[in-house]
Each structure stands twice: as C-alpha cells, then as structure tokens.
Design a protein that fits this description.
With 150 residues, the protein is mainly beta. Strand 7 and strand 8 form a beta hairpin. The protein folds into 2 domains: 64 residues, no CATH class; 58 residues, SH3 type barrels, CATH 2.30.30. The two termini are 25 Å apart. It has a 5-stranded antiparallel beta sheet, with no helix packed on it. A 5-stranded antiparallel beta sheet has the order 11-10-9-6-12. A two-stranded antiparallel ribbon has the order 1-2. It comes from Zooxanthella nutricula. This is EF-hand domain-containing protein. InterPro entries: EF_hand_dom (IPR002048).
C-alpha cells in the first residue's frame, strides 16, 4: 500500500497503467484511486516484472518510426511482423517475415521498437498494465512498448 498526505495511491490487487516516462522514473496511474505514483527506473526490476515475457513463437510488430538497416540490408521497418525463434539468456532472436532477416535483440531492447502482434488484435492496448500485490509492491508490469526507454 502506498499513501501520502492522506491520499491513497494504490493497495494490493490494484490495477494501474504506465502513463508517462521521465528520465529517472515511470509514472503509473492507478485505476481504483485515480492517483498516480512514480517507479524509479533504477529500481523497477526490484519491484516489477513484465507480465508478458517473450517466448519462442511470440509474434511482434515494429512500431511506427522504427527501422533497422545495416550494410545496405534492411532487417525490419515499421509495420513488419517478426517471430521469436530463439532465446539465449537475455537475448532473443527475431525472424522478420517480410525481409527474411533475423536480428538478435536484448531483453529490454524489444520493448523500445515493437509491440505484441496477433491475428485477433494487432498489438498492445495504448497502455500496458501493472498489478499491485498484497504487500503494496508491484508484482506484475507490462511496459508500453512505445514508451519504453529502458
């Protein structure tokens, strides 16, 4: 539970969304209370974990404004769909359908330029979610790919 100045921000089981990002912290709005709180970027891994970690077979879509080209070869561009083919420690290998190329992406890097993709619903909702545990800590966090700058 987090409260300050008589206002409760969140309690165990509350649902919240990442609504902003600053250089030093993430801003989380809690739906039950309507209040916002901050999670330090330097500590988010201590109190949070993504609700959705990449697994082999997961499909990703490149966000608008992103493209990777090296030595004259375009690996992916905005809107491209890729599939996680291999996971090696903190790296994922993504095969891109349009180009046939594969890229190695660090655990946190994929959040910066992709979103989940499925045939039923293309991508993530505008904001991704947090749940607070009964101790008031954040036990589950899904970071907005478009905002993530970890």
């Amino acid at each position: 539970r987090l409260a300050a100045g008589g206002a409760e921000f969140f309690a165990g089981g509350d649902f919240g969304v990442v609504t902003g990002m600053q250089e030093e912290y993430y801003v989380v709005a809690w739906t039950r209370t309507g209040q916002s709180s901050e999670v330090l970027r330097s500590r988010w891994r201590e109190v949070c974990r993504r609700a959705w970690d990449l697994q082999i077979g997961d499909r990703l879509q490149v966000l608008p404004g992103h493209k990777y080209e090296a030595n004259g070869i375009v690996y992916y561009a905005a809107g491209d769909i890729g599939e996680v083919r291999r996971i090696d420690g903190r790296s994922q290998y993504i095969a891109w359908e349009r180009t046939g190329q594969t890229t190695r992406v660090s655990e946190d890097r994929w959040l910066k330029f992709t979103r989940r993709f499925s045939h039923e619903k293309a991508g993530l909702e505008l904001f991704d979610a947090f749940d607070a545990d009964s101790n008031g800590g954040v036990t589950r966090a899904e970071w907005l790919a478009a905002f993530a700058r970890i």
